[in-house]
Amino acid sequence: MVLNKIVDLNETNSPLEMVERDIPKPSAGEILIRVSRCGVCHTELDEIEGRTLPSDFPIVLGHQVVGYVEKHGAYSTRFNKGDRVGVAWIFSACGECKQCLNNNENLCPHFQATGRDINGGYAEYMVVPQEFAYNIPATINDSEAAPLLCAGAIGYRSLRLTNLQNGHNLGLTGFGASGHLVLKTAKHQYPDSKIFVFARNPREREFAKKLGAFWTGDTEDIPSEKLDAIIDTTPVWKPVVEVLKHLDSGGRLVINAIRKENVDINYLKNIDYPEHLWMEKEIKSVANVERRDVREFLQIASNIPIKPEYEEYTLEDANKALMEIKTSKIHGAKVLKIN
Ligand SMILES: [Zn+2]
Ligand SMILES: [Zn+2]
Description:
This protein is of the alpha/beta class. It has nine helices and 17 strands. It binds zinc ion (ZN) (2 copies).
């Protein structure tokens, strides 16, 4: 399934086109993967609508790929044929720049994203550098692994960036695929912390309660306690502005989004410096993932264990899955079942 150009999803509901292509050939250091599953992510909407612009067209989207090694390029000996591997958003980084040498490969200026800069997993086959593929613990099935590779790994990174300590209060704004994985991970990593969930949808709030949230409320509701750290997983601005009021002195808000939509950009004018930002409150964004995030999170997910809820679609139904993400908020992850 390929994206041929940027489109407005209010005008079309089939942005991707099914085409027949040759099986790609792995170059030196790469492996060819027969794709089993590929997760469908909100980021694909950002690519389709041009908020996160693909480097080239046509492009095969998809960056939560689970598959089996089919062939090796030269000097590619890390995996055996038939090994199950995952591929995440980080397709490659240069390994030589200041950021890469400082263990910030996610910030590398030459960072390439799977399914944006290089063809991804909405396909029967894809190639990837062997060093950017991951073993998946045996306790996790293919469909469960797909959402862990993106929503899970980025959620884990966001949680790391909050600098939360066990026992401190954590707030979450939004409770989609990423939010619910963050909640499960946080309860495991910080068992004495209380988790406060802000979500517009009553069904999402109920789901958060079921998973062990201490408090849930709507975007403008006032939580019973101050928050030491907050992770924002919404695509808009209002939740950020509203929740900053409840961040304690010295606390940090981590925004886990590649792009914010502009629909409510004017809401930022409601920021009142003394109330929202003074007392050394911090705002930090989270960009991409390092391989370390993916590796560590897959292990944690296997230990807890985290079994994401998912719905399977055929590859031909990729457009349908994308439009359902666009138009409704459902807590389960969507996964394309390909081979
Ligand atoms: Zn994603
Ligand atoms: Zn680099």
